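From the shared-data thread, chain only:
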Amino acid sequence: MSHVVREWVSKLTWKQQTTLLCACRGIDGFSKDHVSKPLTRIYRHAVLKSADITGSTGFMAFYPNEIAKIIDQFMDFQLDSYPMHWLLHFTHAIEIIGYKHPDFDTRSFWMCLYVKIVKSLHLNPETEDQLDFRLQDGCRERE
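Structure, as tokens:
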């Protein structure tokens, strides 16, 4: 049976997978042209497989030539203007991609953004071991 998540996601703990899926939802109440929307689409592209044969839709996309500009616009829009609930889900999810994605360039991109966000919030980044400990599965066996 095929899955909507990319293969690397299925190898993570259930808690890590759940964290990634919770962040797929964009910010409610912001226009489709808001600076957060392209980043959310890039995020979905890293985690999900596209049901569209072209692989690029309004729901998910990858903009390789515009990534630097998209991050700058996202960070220039005051982080405290984003809903904190959404920002925390998003930050925790991109941390997972930054540590766990199989592609080095993809990991580096998301880790860089993760560090920028946590530093701008006056926090310290977690280590991969801290992430793994925090999001380890309990006693429940995987089906």
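The mean pLDDT is 89.
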